[in-house]
Amino acid sequence: MSKKMDIRWHGRAGQGAVTAAKTLAELISQEEGIYAQGFAVYGAEKRGAPVVAFTRVDEKPIRDHSEYMEPDIVLILDPTLLGLVNVKEGLKKTGKVIVNTAFSKEEVIKELGLEGYEVYVVDANKISMETLGRAIPNTPMIGALSKVTGLFTKEEVANGVVELLKETGKFPEKIIEGNKKAIEIAYEEVK
Amino acid sequence: MGKKVALTGNEAAAHAIRQINPDVIAAFPITPSTPIPQAVAQFIADGEMDTELVTVESEHSAMSACIGAAAAGGRVMTATSANGYALMWEMLYIASGMRLPIVMAVVARALSAPLNIHGDHSDIMGGRDTGWIQIISENSQEAYDNLIQAVKIAENKDVMTPALVAQDGFNTSHTIEIWELEDDNKVKEFIGEYTPLFPLLNTDDPVTHGAWAPPNWYFEHKINQLKGLLDSKEVVEKVGKEFGDTFGRYYGLYEDYKLDDAEYVIVAAGSVCGTTKDVVDNLRENGIKAGLLKIRLFRPFPYRELAEALQSAKAIAVLDRVSPAGAQGGPLFTEIRSALYDTQTRAPVINYTYGLGGRDTQPRHINSVFETLKKIVETGKVEKQFDCLNLRGEWR
Fold this sequence. Notes:
The structure holds two protein chains of two kinds. Chain A has helices at about 15-30, 105-110, 125-130, 140-150, 155-170, 175-190, and strands spanning about 5-10, 35-40, 50-60, 75, 95-100, 120. By secondary structure, chain A is an alpha/beta fold. By secondary structure, chain B is an alpha/beta fold. Chain B has helices spanning about 10-20, 35-45, 60-70, 80-85, 90-95, 120-125, 140-155, 185-190, 220-245, 270-285, 305-310, 330-340, 365-380; strands at about 5-10, 25, 50-55, 75-80, 105-110, 135, 165-170, 175-180, 255, 265-270, 290-295, 295-300, 315-320, 350-355, 385-390. Chain B is globular. Strand 2 (about 35-40) of chain A pairs antiparallel with strand 8 (about 175-180) of chain B.
């Protein structure tokens, strides 16, 4: 399976969409023969305003520095963005949409008019509340993304994020363990 | 081989500065270069650097403090962007006139008004005649590699000229890319210790810096300064080769990408060159002889070498990320065209302004440039010598 893919993240400022794009690039940097580029569109965001971040993944070094993208994958990090952002904008016909939501897949497809696209749902807020005590959906969403795209196995993504968090030296064991669990649960539960 | 990291262009510049560990940095924050001094402040707080960080009240003061520290005999660096660079204006000439090898990371950005924080080359192109060496980077790796080399170039005894290393605001400064971070000690060994020629603080050998030069001497000083700047060209080549021998990534005065037999050639600088390389590859797959000449050293301008590299071209498009501001074209265009005048080729040369204030320049826009070049060769007619890429409507 080709690992070349373009990913667009929709989140809210302060929620970790850029961190998620960065974490994914960091995970990929630890692998051989695969490259990533992560960036966001910067404007006059305020905390809580909708933000967009992008990740390009390819099997060769990425040289294109333009912002334009026709994504293969669109991730919605915040359930309250449903209906506020144009999920389908530029999305390839074969594109996949992964939504953090408590609604069912059928409800999301109907609500967003995503008939004909592959849609996946995962309740990343609930997972992170249970594992971390706070709604920080970005790490579980990386777990869900890994499953849907086949970029990483459950062990690879969980251990990879643990390594990255340990490297920063900023997080207590409990937080690191919580993130690991959140990724594993999201990997299992995304459907 | 270095360690693979996933970091932004700003972080790349900050890591280069950490490894260089200069004696003094004086800086004032301005988007998009703020993360550089911010990261440096963190490195200092964490004990990873012992640089004296002077937090000044403006960029004019930042460059002034750099000049004082460099005259005293220190290895000195700073970072800025856009209006901050413009505010340094007066002091940029003083740094180069005093022959102080200050190295500055510039994250190139549009100048106000209208207020805009995004990438273009208005700042560095406006400062092209300040007597500084100017090196332009395509990506994070180059932003890192070029800063390390700039220290060695600026401090060379035959050069003694300040140098700036530019990268594109947001396109690379805020983009996470995978690049190689070299070993701290290997970098330190590469740049070596700095021995200032005439340190002000050497009381055994008192000297005057920044002296008054009346009409009977000013001219000679300025021409000596010019020689130092021009002599840096050879040093840029030498250091680029040494860097390659040490770290495996070789650098010259410019980069030729599929240029040898190229008929349709784009000349450009900065992050757009990466996008252009992708388009060149696509066209080559379809049998179209496209090529790219990427400007690396813009000051001093290696006009002979660049003109030589363009001799196979049947039509040339020069991309400027700045308004021509009333000139025949952008600065890169006028200099490339002038350089070609002394050579055999009479290939048509056209000019585009692109990417002002962060306007996105996509593969399809670059593709349209190559299509225009092809049409010029086929018809023998140049319809527009100057045009804009991805602008609403016709420019005129």
